[in-house]
Amino acid sequence: MLTVEKLEEYGADTESGLSRCADNEALYLRLVGIIVQELSSDALGEALEAGDFDKAYYIAHKLKGGVNNLALTPIAEPLCELTELLRNKTPGDYKTLYVKITCKTNELSIMIDPKLIKK
To answer: What is the CATH number of domain 4-112?
Structure first.
């Protein structure tokens, strides 16, 4: 079961995330579950694999907003970097950043529901 304490151990800035949810712990944890489901979809990976960088940017930017609002720092850092590369159409190692995002999402998924793990 996901708890604020587990999120703190994971590296999330729960104080900041909770403050954005009016210190409503149940709401915060529910929103973390929702963003993890969105991150666990393969939309971003598929767009990157297809070379559709405009679509990948749109998806990454949307996810970045949710992840940053919930202060999920371990995912936010590589996701922000990927979003900026895509925004500026900068050549870069998109795959490595995507793998980091996926690994950190999987770590969080295990805390919520092991069935969410992306292979």
So the answer is: 1.20.120
